[in-house]
Design a protein that fits this description.
It is a single chain. This protein is mainly α. The chain has two domains: 30 residues, no CATH class; 121 residues, Four Helix Bundle (Hemerythrin (Met), subunit A). It is built from five helices and four strands; from the N terminus they run ββααααββα. The strands form two sheets. Strands 1-2 form a two-stranded antiparallel ribbon. Helix 1 runs antiparallel to helix 3, helix 3 packs parallel to helix 4 and helix 3 runs antiparallel to helix 5. The radius of gyration is 17 Å and the shape is globular.
């Protein structure tokens, strides 16, 4: 790794993740950063057993890598499909605002969660690609919200949870890193 903490900007990839560009069109930079964060979450789960991805952090927290994957599948679905595109699709695990069924992983299937997350990410990318501009809006709580804001929010959401994922992975098997 280089002195820049692993982001060697003369390379285009680091451990199978595409490094976001240092300069470019706003949309390309935002979508690259979001994809980098998605890939980081996937990387945190690589090579683990079903029991390991279900392993919780420290009581009373119910955080687990599997819970984070399920949560981010739900977040992708909510922000891109429901709020931005106005699709009438049910939530996968949440049933009421504020519940955390996505983090209830005792009986959850890691393969099903990974498939759901990958499907939601693919649909989100499709919605973003088909959007005319970053200025298109969706709706949340009766207010307009732009695609630009959603992309930025999603980067923040993944980055925060990737910090959790890093600590969870380190607790499981000692693996650390970006």
């Amino acid at each position: 790794m280089g002195s820049s903490g692993g982001l060697c900007h003369d390379d285009t990839m680091v451990d199978n993740r595409v490094i976001p560009p240092l300069a470019g069109e706003e949309r390309a930079v935002l979508t690259a950063f979001l994809q980098y964060q998605r890939d980081t979450l996937g990387r945190k789960c690589e090579g683990l057993t079903a029991e390991q991805v279900k392993q919780r952090s420290v009581p009373p927290s119910n955080l687990s890598l599997l819970g984070l994957v399920r949560h981010m599948a739900e977040v992708e679905r909510i922000w891109f499909r429901i709020r931005l595109s106005g699709e009438d699709v049910p939530l996968r695990w949440k049933r009421t605002p504020g519940d955390d069924l996505d983090f209830d992983v005792d009986d959850a299937d890691p393969e099903e969660a990974a498939e759901a997350w990958n499907e939601e990410c693919a649909r989100s990318r499709e919605i973003e690609r088909n959007a005319e501009s970053l200025d298109i809006t969706g709706h949340v709580s009766g207010k307009d919200v732009s695609l630009r804001w959603i992309l930025t929010h999603m980067i923040e959401e993944y980055a925060r949870h990737n910090g959790h994922a890093d600590l969870l992975r380190e607790r499981i098997d000692g693996v650390t890193g970006e």
